[in-house]
Amino acid sequence: MTMGNPCAIIGVGQTAYKTRRLDVSMAGLLREAAVRALEDAELTWNDIDAVVIGKAPDLFEGVMMPEAYLADALGATGKPIMRVHTAGSVGGSTANVAASLIQSGVHDRVLTLAWEKQSESNATWALTVNSPFSTSLVVGAGGYFAPHIRAYMRRSGAPDHIGTLVAVKDRQNALKNPYAHLKIPGISREMVESTPMLWEPIRYLETCPSSDGACAMVLASEDAARKAPGRPAWVHGTAMRSEPIFFAGRDTVNPQGGKDCAADVYRQAGISDPRRELDCAEVYVPFSWYEPMWLENLGFCGEGEGWKLTEAGATALDGDIPWNPSGGVLSSNPIGASGMIRFAEAALQVRGRAGDHQVDGARRALGHAYGGGAQFFAMWIVGSDKP
Ligand SMILES: CC(=O)SCCNC(=O)CCNC(=O)[C@H](O)C(C)(C)COP(=O)(O)OP(=O)(O)OC[C@H]1O[C@@H](n2cnc3c(N)ncnc32)[C@H](O)[C@@H]1OP(=O)(O)O
Known about the structure:
Elements lengths: L6 E8 L11 H16 L8 E6 L11 H4 L10 E4 L5 H14 L5 E9 L5 H4 L13 H17 L5 H13 L14 H5 L3 E3 L2 E2 L8 E10 H5 L6 E10 L13 H14 L4 H4 L2 E3 L7 H8 L8 H7 L15 H4 L3 H17 L12 E8 L4 E8 L4
Parallel strand pairs: 2-3, 2-4, 9-10
Antiparallel strand pairs: 1-7, 1-8, 4-7, 5-6, 8-11, 10-11
The structure holds acetyl coenzyme *A.
The site of acetyl coenzyme *A (ACO) has 18 residues, from helix 5 and helix 14.
EC number: 2.3.1.9
GO molecular function: acetyl-CoA C-acetyltransferase activity
Protein name: Acetyl-CoA C-acetyltransferase
């Protein structure tokens, strides 16, 4: 894939992430994020050429095809609106599709938005029952991913406490993020280790919560970015890959789709050593053990070495390659929005707008999302300089 015209992120809007946003309807939740993104860009609905939205499967909320009635709430009446769908990675894929509308020269300003209002229903239940003609995921996403984590531990020889370290680090970061769902003062290894085992080896405090929330961005052409009030983030590369959930020889611990996606986005951004050349990363880690697993899949280290980076503190806010300074998916997981939050947080970092969880001097950052049975991948690299 080639990059096309330059694309900038000129506005970011997030809602607070919470267990239940009973104060707003689904439309109200979306509008909150969209209006904040427009305010950040000092624009109104009239300035937007098209809207690209995404959310995870409708069964997660029990609301079918919500896009059919949301055009009004999103200021999209009379404008093109499209929905993207790639399971949990959808927030990332949605941003990439929106970026492609700028890069191709079709539009100048695109509003992109992703959300989940899990309190409308119960996504863990939705991922537990057998749909007709499909294999059961056992008990929620945790039930599906736990055996892959066990396989990783066996293959890499990682000691048991690595997952605990990630859980503590990400929740400590979340204390610095005003939007984060889980705020656990005094979070410690002892606290994590004392919580019940949900899906062995995943403990209660090693899993993400179920959140309501939405995230929006305004993407702009070079011309439109020049007129924007603040410092933009520039897209240096976008990539997506998919693979079937089952095939002979599939490596569920270190999926080929993720490796290929990373290689593609690094090539576009001219990156050969991500640990050295990136300043921080927002990576989709819903269960703590996915940090060392994705460190390897994304080429930040060799196979079997990811847990050593985590253990050495390399991914901490003051480490050499901070991962999830915002607190990540472990601290807030409105599933459909979570990929876009990663992408938006990467953009905030290189705009110098990440507040208390800002990584000093961040100039290049990775946003990452995965979904389905670790079979859909979406990534972007953003930077403070125009590529
Ligand atoms: C690609 C992907 O995204 S894969 C991941 C998909 N998502 C998941 O698998 C979700 C996993 N999490 C869950 O299923 C649930 O949150 C569980 C099982 C951990 C907890 O279930 P419940 O106790 O029913 O949680 P419920 O949502 O009702 O929240 C109850 C309280 O516990 C808190 N809570 C929920 N999960 C967690 C957690 N993992 N750690 C700490 N606190 C939590 C909530 O914030 C809430 O507190 P509040 O009332 O002060 O807001």
